Amino acid sequence: MQDYEVSVAFLGTWGPFQRRVFFLLCVTCVPSGYQTLSVMFLLASPSHHCHIPTHSNLSQDWIQASIPTQQVAEQPERSSCSRYMLDQVQNLSTLGSLELVHNLSTLGSSPEILLSSLKQEGCKDGWNYSTEYYHSTVVTEFNLVCSDQWKQPLTSLVFFLGGLSGCFISGRISDRFGRKPVLFGSVAIVSVFSGAQAFAPSWPVFTALYFMIGLGQLSGYIAVFVLGSETLTGSTRVFFSNLALPFVFVFAIMLLPATAYLVREWRYLSLFMAVPGLACIPLWWLVPESSRWLVSRGRLQDAETLLRSAALENQVEAPRVIFLSSNVERTTSEKDESLSFLDLLRTANIRYITLMLWLIWFSAGINYFGLSFNISILSGNPYLNYFLMSVVELPAYAASWLAARSFPRRLSFISLALLGAIALLLIQITLHGHPAFTLSLVLLSKFGIVASTGLLYVFTGELFPTVIRNTAMSSSAMFSRVGSSVSSYLLQLVVLSEFLPWIVVGSLSLFSVLLCLFLPETLRQPLPDTIQQMGLVQRFRWPRVSTPLPKKSAKDQTSAPEIICTTHL
């Protein structure tokens, strides 16, 4: 909508109106960021073992001995899901103390051999959970362990599926009724259902409420992104979308580990997570609707009223007529000529590019959340670990922004993704012997994954032509969300091998690097407007800047991409 940019140029790019919208939208992003990693603390699973009831009349030594030990990573560890049959332990305890039983070793039987010969049973009387880091979580309250352990990843899956559903539902509502209702509706959903979650009487109720929170969490972020991209113009829009909004989002993520450290009861933590959204509700009267959306819906009078008010705030004079009817007709005709989702697979070239990018985005979704899930198995304070994992995203986003300004897309993405993959694969060497070095490798891999994903947004937008760019971005985001849904099951691979989750995430990063080798370079290339102008799939070779296309006249040149995320597929 280039005519719209010309029509609103009288406002400038950084007046009081733009500053107000800029900062208010950054604030409304906080509820979404605050909820992003809530699954890590609400569903935390502390160490546990079978509960021995007090009426068993066993001494503390016999209670400790009634839990079998097993080898985990070549270290003895108490069993989490079984105990020796209580009646047999009670019979053995009638011989006296463990020291007295130890005297039986002169007859060739040690206490360990005597106990290991007993039959085992499940935790019929419940579990005792460690309170070193968590006083209570959803897992400890509803006993989502052992035979019910499958409910943990399922709950995470439901949360991510809520976000996936929110992309489709909120998109249609946003295009029909406006960006602002979807933004504040999503904020309200997150706040209301997070507060209601604190009173969930059972796991099924908690899971249903968590689905609604996931639905509002992602919808709110998309609405903020789109509203800011459509309201702000020029360099202000680029700075808001590429740097300011991600930074505020990361700061919101960093607030959650700090809050969870202070509030270690999951019900109180749920109530605290409802506070940022409730604080944002009054901003409804301060945040304007998107004038660009108003124009696209033919509501020219409402759009002009909003822009004239912005002109007064910026102390500039608005033109007598802001929008000409011919501009609106041209915009409508351009929308009618837009292509459909199936056009992403129509020709061989765009089909190969689309399929490769879908796989890369799918891997990016698994890598980001899979790495967050895997950090729970590291040693050390989980609150500090998650806080550091959030902090490292700040320089990662800055690095992706700098790389996008000056360096080839393929080389930048490959270098950053390769950095994350190598760090992940090296974790196998240091996982048990060097915990500090292991954490450093995890942070380095998070840096590479986040930076490469940030660059992927720009790269994807530059690869696809204008006529289908928004649809391509939406479909890529959908595959990323599918990947994040699958990531909740990565931790289950520990049953096969403790290194397997790290190997899977690292291998997917390497797979993305391999696919990127076949994508065309886009740095300093004219932005394609049609499918025929798209770059061709490359043969296997080391990435470099493609041969520049013949120069065009100034009026034919397309400016650098300013990607605006569409709200529906």
Spell out the key features of this protein.
569 residues, mainly alpha, single chain, disordered C terminus, two-stranded antiparallel ribbon, two-stranded antiparallel sheet
Mean pLDDT: 78
**Uncertain spans, ≥5 residues at pLDDT below 50?**
104-110, 329-338, 545-569
The percentage of residues in β strands lies in: under 5%
Helical fraction: 55-70%
DSSP summary: helix tally: 25
Taking all Cα atoms into account, the compactness measure Rg is 28 Å
**How are strands sequenced across the largest beta sheet?**
1-6
Largest sheet, described in full?
A: 2 strands, antiparallel
Kindly describe this structure.
The longest helix is centred in the middle third of the chain and has 29 residues, at 203-231. The protein has helices spanning 2-7, 16-28, 30-35, 38-42, 60-65, 86-93, 98-102, 111-116, 138-142, 151-177, 179-197, 203-231, 234-262, 266-273, 275-280, 291-296, 300-314, 325-336, 348-374, 382-391, 393-406, 409-430, 435-463, 469-487, 500-516; strands at 48-50, 69-72, 75-78, 83-84, 120-121, 127-129. The protein is built from 25 helices and 6 strands. Helices cover 61% and strands 3% of the residues. The two termini are 19 Å apart. Mean pLDDT is 78; it is low at 104-110, 329-338 and 545-569. It is mainly alpha-helical and 569 residues long. α10 packs antiparallel against α24, α13 (234-262) packs antiparallel against α20 and α19 runs antiparallel to α23. It is globular and about 100 Å long. Strands 1-6 form a two-stranded antiparallel ribbon. A two-stranded antiparallel ribbon has the order 2-3. Strands 4-5 form a two-stranded antiparallel sheet.
